[in-house]
């Protein structure tokens, strides 16, 4: 049987003494304050992406808009789920999720977009997804083994952001071609 690095009596005593810290124990290996800041930046990013996709969903128009708008709505709903996961993790770590609309776009890695042209919408959404992919990849690498749970949250988000980027790239390749044929 493997031995613990810390004897179990010490672990039990710490667990009782620091009960108010919830899941954050002495074994937590990351900079908690910085992790919470990064999580809140990612939360802002996901909220901005949700809002951008919702706007694009409602304002997409033209002959080819229906299937693209459906994709925008699907992505908006998934981005909202990402925001919910991030907010939940922030609370688990003893932090406060920052939903302040006054600072949302300043904290977001992605930009909000108010394009009216369908191709421009797709391009801007693809840029935002690529920003999320790059940011989340760096965050995962930075977290390493210091906070495996938060790392897994970002790994799940990253997989879906990559899927979104692939979806948008595929739509962008088809929409202009179809528009020329119409």
TrEMBL record:
InterPro entries: Bacterioferritin, Dps-like, Ferritin-like, Ferritin-like_diiron, Ferritin-like_SF, Ferritin_DPS_dom. Its cofactor is heme b. Residues 29-179 form the Ferritin-like diiron domain. Pfam families: Ferritin. Keywords: Iron, Iron storage. Signal peptide: none annotated. Homooligomer of 24 subunits, arranged as 12 dimers, that are packed together to form an approximately spherical molecule with a central cavity, in which large amounts of iron can be deposited. This is Ferritin-like domain-containing protein.
């Amino acid at each position: 049987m493997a031995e613990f690095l810390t004897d179990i009596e010490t672990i039990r005593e710490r667990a009782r003494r620091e009960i108010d810290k919830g899941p954050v124990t002495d074994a937590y290996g990351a900079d908690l304050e910085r992790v919470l800041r990064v999580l809140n930046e990612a939360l802002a990013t996901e909220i901005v992406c949700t809002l951008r996709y919702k706007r694009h969903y409602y304002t997409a128009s033209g002959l080819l808009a229906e299937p693209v708008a459906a994709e925008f709505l699907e992505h908006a709903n998934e981005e909202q789920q990402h925001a919910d996961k991030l907010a939940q993790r922030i609370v688990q770590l003893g932090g406060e999720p920052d939903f302040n609309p006054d600072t949302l776009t300043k904290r977001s890695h992605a930009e909000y977009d108010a394009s009216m042209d369908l191709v421009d919408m797709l391009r801007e959404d693809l840029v935002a997804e690529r920003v999320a992919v790059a940011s989340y990849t760096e965050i995962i690498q930075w977290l390493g083994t210091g906070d495996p749970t938060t790392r897994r949250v970002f790994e799940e988000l990253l997989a879906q952001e990559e899927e979104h980027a692939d979806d948008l790239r595929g739509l962008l390749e088809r929409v202009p071609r179809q528009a020329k044929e119409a």
